[in-house]
Design brief:
Number of strands: 7
Structural class: alpha/beta
Shape: globular
CATH superfamily: NADH:ubiquinone oxidoreductase Nqo5 subunit
Order of helices and strands: HEEHEEEEHE
Strand content: 25-35%
Strand order of the largest sheet: 1-2-5-4-3
CATH class: Alpha Beta
Number of domains: 1
């Protein structure tokens, strides 16, 4: 049984959609199931996803040139890998624009700390339970979130430091 099939079997009501192509398995899950699914991925011996490879976000504001509409603006995307079993799985979580919040996974994978800070900094998505959610790439006075598709590319930011 593949990792995706195990997740589907265990969390059927929380799976919104899945796809698998050439060993690339993906599940879109309900946000409230994230912690439980992540714990299952890490603690189930035949899965043993002990490595969080990446965590990022996608902004679907102008998805496919505005021709395709999604029910949510953002998705947080997690890439997990099992060093023991050499398999990988992508988990995606839809995030609403009005309340862009998901649970932090730092308690399971400490490496999530900087990834979550980067997503907060660039997209404005908050992570419940993060111990130090602050900017990591931009300076503290930076206004807005630079990777949002509605961020004005020509926006002037507050100056920092002395003017010479």
């Amino acid at each position: 049984m593949t990792p995706l099939e195990r997740v589907q079997e265990q969390f059927k009501p929380d799976i919104l959609e899945t796809h698998a192509f050439r060993g690339d398995e993906t599940a879109l899950i309900r946000p409230q199931a994230l912690k439980a699914v992540a714990q299952f991925l890490k603690d189930t011996p035949e899965l043993n996803f002990n490595f969080l490879m990446d965590l990022t976000a996608v902004d679907y504001l102008f998805y496919a040139g505005g021709r395709v509409q999604k029910d949510h603006r953002f998705e947080v995307v997690y890439h997990f890998f099992s060093l023991k079993h050499k398999h990988r799985l992508r988990i995606k979580v839809p995030v609403d624009e009005k309340n862009p919040v998901v649970d932090s996974l730092i308690s399971l994978w400490p490496a999530a700390n900087w990834y979550e800070r980067e997503v907060w900094d660039m997209f404005g998505i908050k992570f419940n339970g993060h111990p130090n959610l602050k900017r990591i790439l931009m300076y503290e006075e930076f206004q807005g979130h630079a990777l949002r598709k509605d961020y004005p590319f020509n926006k002037r930011q507050p100056l920092i430091g002395p003017l010479n």
